[in-house]
Automatic annotation (TrEMBL):
GO biological process: one example: carbohydrate metabolic process
InterPro entries reported in the protein's UniProt record: 6-hairpin_glycosidase_sf (IPR008928), 6hp_glycosidase-like_sf (IPR012341), DUF4861 (IPR032342), Glyco_hydro_88 (IPR010905), PolySaccharide_Degr_Enz (IPR052043)
Keyword NADP tagged: no
Annotated keywords: Hydrolase
Gene Ontology molecular function: hydrolase activity
Name of the protein in its database record: DUF4861 domain-containing protein
SUPFAM superfamilies on file: Six-hairpin glycosidases
Species whose genome carries this gene: Lysobacter enzymogenes
Amino acid sequence: MAAPLAAPAKEPPLAAAQVRAALLRSADWQLANPRRIETTDWIIAPMYDGLLHAAFTTGEPRFAQAVLGFGNQSGWSPRWRYYHADDHAVGHAWLDIYQLDPTRKERLAPLQKTFDYVLAHPVTEALDFRNKSPKTPGISFTDRWTWCDALYMGPPTLVRLYRATGDKKYLDFLDREFRYTYDTLYDHDEHLFWRDGTYIGKTAPNGRKQFWSRGNGWVYAGLGLLLQELPADHPTRPFYVKLFLEMTDAVVAAQQPDGLWRPSMLDAKHIPGGEQSGSAFFTYGLAWGINHGLLSKKKYWPAVERGWRGQMSTVKPDGFVGFVQPVGEAPDKFNETSTQLYGTGAFLLAGSEILRALGGATKTAPEKILAAAQAAFDADRTPRAYARLVPERKDDLAWENDRVAFRIYGPALRASIEDSGIDAWFKKVDYPVIDKWYRDDIHNKVSYHKDHGEGYDAYGVGDTRGVGGLGLWRDGTLVAADTYRHADVVWTKPEVAEFVVAYDYPELDGRTIREKRTVRLKLGEQLNDIEARFTVDGKPVAGLEVAVGLVAQGKSAQFDLQPNDGRMSVWETIDGKGLGVGAVFAAGEVRQMKRTNLAGKAHDGKAKSAEHALAILRTDADGRVRYRAGFGWSGAGKIADRAAWDAYLADPARAPAPMEATK
């Protein structure tokens, strides 16, 4: 547990330089040590909030540049569950950035689309964690803000959406849903929130009510983020201010002498030791209240100072933030090695507000800091592996490394012929190009189907398997999924790009068949690592036959099928340069390989067949198949000819291996 500070009779006042240095250390440490998590997950959202606050208080553009990168990878979108508040939490950061540069409409559109759908199809049933089977068909008990953490996730995004659009419908929705949660979960005696309906009336071991510190920390910090953007004349602002003030005294009363809060707010001995994340959210809220004139500095600054000193007892000299309770919903154990992104984010939020209070914040306007971050982001040509969602181009998902680039197609193309095939983009350069190519194609009418010096997209996919796409193999016929249902980009180091996509297949005898596909591309590689997991009615299915395909672009393509060696390839010439596509499988996993024509359609709706190399596999006991697939283009200077391509695929280093799970 976090060791209590050995408090002298009088502590020296906090120093702005020391607070600033602590912010820089922890922000830099966290960015240098990615956690494998979806870039739109709620767990990472507070980190984005903290990085932006740190950037705009320290004047360091690199932290804003990092959030620009995350936003770009995420397509400036919330996560894919329309109603779930957790999936709205990244909207704080996306909209804070948009408001500083409202010329970039692509940073507003995805969030506006999501909430416009929610507001047009509101959930009105009284939902509660105590009833996990709502009456309304198709909804979940979490489709309203039925747990207190949601008051950090959703409301700050909605108030920023109002600020960005001027449309009060977002505030009306915010007020209605917040009030619903308040009426259900707020305890008017203790001025704290129950975590959810299942905890109402529960007591801690000492007999007092059990209130979770991080859950209330979410609410308290969320109120700061909400009130910061809520108009001064908004009719319900007094309600939120009153709630903030009521909670403040309850929060301060629960602070322990070491400056930290215990997981169980009213029973310090329940889970001994100070917990970092809830404590940081409380410290942020207190400092924010002082900075914005809601709290008396004379009365509450001592609690802020104690809180910051307590925070520093949880942080290692290199900036690692520990003593963070893991993901949960109630007081639980933790130790000095327990860490999470929301803990680091809350630390950065708290430190940024304290730096402002100490007069140590930069005088540079946030707009200028963001502009410097944007310029650095745009100018960065460091070779890296990179994946991103592209909602502005029909929901594409594109990814690349220093050698190759790919894309798959999303829900906006559901009515077109494109489905779950994999497209190939030919690169001549080692630096990232997909952002530039999309931007030039969409905004400058410079087509990426023509080579302007960096490469181009000359590969046709349509409804074929493309470069290693797959489908079910039923009675000698390939059954493909449509475009992906939803997708997540995963935070990785620059040496690896990774994402996860979900596909739905046509029902079989009334059973629902789904595929969850993880794709990973490493720097310096020509091939993707692909792991596909199939379920039938939600359960993994073993022995399901699937087919992996490579499509030929012309009639002169040369096929090489080596089922015993676990590899297949197609070599041909496009625009005078050689192209090899290929797939590699673990020894003994291929049941059959074949060269065959698959029926399909052209964009004009007419029937069209495409010649494929197919490998037939069966899923393992966990419903999985694993393989590697990709291409080599002679125009890139890495793969000169067919012999070089065959040798590349035959190298034992190309053999697929199991992937570790995300998170």
